[in-house]
Amino acid sequence: MKITISGLKADIGSIGGHITPSKALINEVENFIQKNGAQLIIDSYISHTGDDIAILCTHEKGVSNEKIHKLAWDAFLAGTEVAKKQGLYGAGQDLLKDAFSGNIKGMGPAVAEIEFEERPNEPFVFFAADKTDPGAYNLPFYLAFADPMYCAGLMLSPKMSEGFTFRIIDVNYVEKDKIIDLHSPEELYDIAALLRDNERYVIESIYSRSTGNQSLAISTTRLHNIAGKYTGKDDPIALVRVQGEFPATGEILAPFQIGHLVAGFMRGSHTGPLMPCKLKATISYFDGPPIVTGAAFSIKEGKLTEPADVFDHPFWDYVRAKISEKATEIRRQGFSGAAMLPYNELEYGGIVDKLNKLEKKFKIRE
Ligand code: 13P
Ligand code: 13P
Ligand code: MG
Ligand code: MG
Fold first, then answer.
1. Whose CA is nearest to atom 5 of ligand 1?
2. CB of 19 closer than 6 angstroms to any ligand 2 atom
3. How many domains does the chain have?
4. What confidence category does residue 293 fall into, taking pLDDT thresholds of 50, 70 and 90?
């Protein structure tokens, strides 16, 4: 049976700043999908990570399906009305276009979708990150799919030993999708050379070379490329099919213990460690730290089980404590150097105006 999992996520308003959506807002989106999606989708799961609401749904309509995307867009619009009524901050923040135009991609919300022939048992993990951008997934998924130091299956599983194909997108090229396919292990160094630049080259998808099947899909929206200015961070989602020909769930999770430094944090303009959090995590310290949550599911004929919270385990309390130290450590240097993003990534237009004004006051010494 060919099934599609679609993840669609947007920030449409939140309580007390960029912390968390309200219950009324989440309920509205949930009710909207239940009422209007009955004929279209098999199953759905509505969640929030930080201030972002995600619609996860299963169906038989394939990826980039106009009806599925419209359903999500309309649900986000309905939610925005509730956000406005409640006076939530940033109501409709990620809905950057006025009218739906066939595909939600390029309109603000994040989208990650995979279509596949369902295996007899079909486990997958849905990741959602807040206060960061799609490049935040480069390192953990590079390590999980290409490095035997993190993924034992690359040595131990014959199917995985053939390696994986990484499809990488240049997110700075905005006219069309500019992509490249590179194969691990032969092209590992080329993959690394691109993925070191989290703000430009982003993993879009990963495929098993033994079966050709897709394991991973990541949303690659960069909002400032759509809006031409800062409207909020591009808080990315990812879908990962696991086990069998793909890495085990635990191998996918392993690199998240690093708490590597990513772009985002306060005003989308800083560097901070990515903290793996429990489902429904909110946002706090310095509008951060950047967070990622993971909901694992099994699926049968498109029907979802309840989610299992992959970062709800005593081990991750230890990791979170260490990452908190890392977050406070980099925050100690405030705006200086590596703590704040380089000029061309600074998300607030204000500093550009400021520097332009100062430029005129500079004098050349004779
Ligand atoms: P089981 O033998 O319990 O299925 O575990 C295998 C595995 O994939 C562990 O990562
Ligand atoms: P969001 O993109 O999650 O709304 O965060 C925006 C921000 O500026 C936080 O300081
Ligand atoms: Mg927000
Ligand atoms: Mg957000």
1. 248
2. no
3. 2
4. very high
Q: Is residue 70 in a domain?
A: yes
Q: What is the pLDDT of residue 348?
A: 67
Other Cβ atoms less than 10 A from the Cβ of 70: the count is 17
Phi-psi category of residue 46: left, alpha or beta, with phi > 0 → left and psi -120 to 50 → alpha? beta
The reported pTM is: 0.96
Residues 140-153: tens digit of each pLDDT? 999 999 999 999 99
145, 262: one domain = yes
Final residue in a domain of this structure, among 117, 151, 175: 117
**Ligand 1 binding pocket includes 152 (Cβ within 6 Å):** no
- Any idea what DSSP says for residue 80? H
Helices 66-86 and 23-36, packing angle to 10 deg: 150
Q: Are residues 140 and 67 in the same domain?
A: no
Q: Which domain holds residue 98?
A: 1-117
Pairing of strands 261-264, 275-276: unpaired
pLDDT in tens, 77-110: 999 999 999 999 999 999 988 888 889 988 899 9
> How far away, in angstroms, is 234 Cα from ligand 3 center?
10
Show which residues are catalytic: 11, 230, 233
pLDDT digits (tens, 9 = 90+) for 165-174: 999 999 988 8
